[in-house]
Design goal:
two-stranded antiparallel ribbon, 11 strands, 5-stranded antiparallel sheet
Length: 312
């Protein structure tokens, strides 16, 4: 009886071994067969999160991989810097944006001339100002410092207002800006017009602005608001290839158009603009009480990081 029991167990064990071997062979066959037939799903594969909170996504051919949002790198650049920085980056075609101290009131320097120029072109569009009208430079207009070529011209030199607006945009001409403000009715009237643009924290007399206001102004212009098409293109052309291309434009390829308004004072290095890439975006950097040499090196680096994120 014991022999029969042992034999029965042995036969059962043999059958089990056979089944196990068969299953192993089946699994091995599937492992060798499937890789040649199986393809990864045609959607995105998520990689681990970066410290900036964004996730890189990789897609199959035909899709463009995006780099991580560069806020951590930008903040790292600013950690050891003196003074205050406020930054706004906003894509015009997507939801991507970076906001750092976006509502902090900063010294505008010559960035304040951007809303003045918009008010000027609005006056042209409404017929209140003839851009071809001649202005004769007076000795009382002369500034003893600042940017622009008008200060070096003799009293009696003639300009059209269209030429003055170009100098204000392209050279950031201080005398030209004062001439435009005077023609537009003075500081109070121009401020009232600026308020109507929706710039809630921009003060012409105090020379103050926020990146939120500057970014909002560029956004409205990019969307075709505020100005006629002719005036907008005139303004944009004058704000391209300016006398100072060493800040935001220095961070993008040379063939990319950057429409921007720079500004400088003691302790202030500013630049705000619109980058006309395939994915156009607004970028604005304002500073106060900074080391000028350090800030002039930082702005192109910030621009380059943003281009690596949103650029072509």
């Amino acid at each position: 009886m014991a022999d029969k029991v042992r034999k029965s167990l042995g036969e059962a064990g043999s059958r089990k071994q056979t089944v196990v071997v068969f299953l192993l062979l089946l699994v091995l066959g599937l492992v060798m067969y499937l890789p040649s037939r199986w393809k990864a799903p045609d959607w995105r594969v998520k990689l681990p999160q970066w410290s900036g909170g964004d996730v890189i996504t990789i897609r199959k051919s035909g899709w463009k991989a995006t780099s991580p949002r560069p806020r951590p790198q930008i903040e790292a650049l600013l950690t050891e810097q003196t003074g205050d920085y406020s930054i706004l980056v906003k894509s015009l075609t997507g939801q991507e944006e970076i906001m750092i101290n976006e509502h902090q009131v900063m010294t505008a320097a010559s960035v304040i001339k951007l809303p003045v120029l918009v008010v000027y072109y609005q006056a042209v569009d409404s017929g209140q100002l003839d851009p071809g009208e001649i202005y004769i430079l007076a000795e009382a207009d002369r500034w003893e410092y600042g940017t622009g070529s008008m200060q070096y011209q003799a009293a009696g030199t003639k300009y059209t207002y269209q030429e003055i607006a170009k100098l204000v945009a392209n050279q950031s001409d201080n005398m030209g800006a004062e001439v435009l403000i005077k023609k537009l009715g003075g500081y109070t009237k121009v401020q009232q017009a600026i308020d109507k643009l929706g710039l809630t924290k921009t003060n012409l007399k105090a020379n103050e602005i926020t990146v939120a206001d500057a970014g909002n102004l560029f956004l409205q212009l990019a969307q075709g608001k505020l100005l006629s098409q002719a005036s907008r293109e005139g303004l944009f052309n004058n704000l391209t290839k300016t006398i100072n291309e060493d800040r935001l434009p220095a961070g993008v390829p040379e063939n990319i158009r950057v429409i921007h308004k720079f500004g400088s004072e003691v302790g202030v290095v500013n630049d705000c603009g619109l980058v006309e890439a395939s994915n156009p975006y607004i970028i604005c950097v304002l500073t106060t009480e900074v080391n000028v040499g350090e800030a002039e090196a930082i702005l192109p680096q910030i621009s380059k990081l943003v281009w690596g994120w949103l650029g072509d």
